[in-house]
Amino acid sequence: MNWAHIHIMINHTPIIGAVFGFAFLAYAVWRKSAELEKVGLGILVIIAVTAIATFLTGDPAGEFLAKAVPGVPESVWDRHCTLAAVAMGASIATGVCALVGLAVSWRAKAPHRGLLWACLFLAGVALVLMAWTGHRGAQIRHTEVRPGGQVVSPSVSGGE
After folding, report:
1. How many CA atoms lie within 13 A of 99 on its CB side?
2. What letter does residue 33 receive in the DSSP assignment?
3. Cβ of 122: how many Cβ atoms within 10 Å?
């Protein structure tokens, strides 16, 4: 196992988690359920932590892949790395907002509505950035999803 393998294993968590966290919190706000709202906020905090872990494994994974996979354009690496930093920042902002929401609701019966809407908005932004970052990361190894990329069909060989 190498850093690229570890990065690929964990990078799906903040992406899928962002979808789940956003949807869960939106449902909780719609239902006006204080218990579900608190769970939704907790999910967003956990997703922020997984985004940090994913980001921290990115540089070692990139160093490994730069040696193992020659010929990847520098622009592909740069776009993914830059966007990953922005996505992690959005996820951290969402996690901090959610943590504040949890802290405020510690003694209150329900989280503050304004904080819930702020967290929901930030979670939506983080979701879009996480998905976009994942797409950019896929372009490193999957030429078919690069702009102007072409799918190369495997050649049929032998036995005919």
Report:
1. 11
2. -
3. 21
Helices (H), the chain: 3-31, 34-68, 74-104, 113-141
Asked if 130 contacts 36 with a C-beta cutoff of 8 angstroms, the reply is no
pLDDT at 99: 96
Instruction: Give the integer Cα–Cα distance in Å for 13 and 25.
Output: 17
pLDDT tens digits for range 16-32:
999 999 999 999 999 99
Given a cut of 80, whether residue 139 has pLDDT beyond it is no
Give the distance between the most distant pair of CA atoms in the chain. 75
Which positions ≥6 away from 127 have C-beta within 8 Å?
Answer: 18, 19, 22
Rounding to the nearest 10 degrees, give the CA dihedral for residues 81, 84, 90, 95.
-130
Instruction: Output b/e per residue, 90-111; b: 16+ Cβ within 10 A.
Output: bbbbbbebbbbbbeebeeeeeb
Predicted confidence at residue 152, as pLDDT, reads 45
Which two three-digit tokens encode residue 151?
């799918």
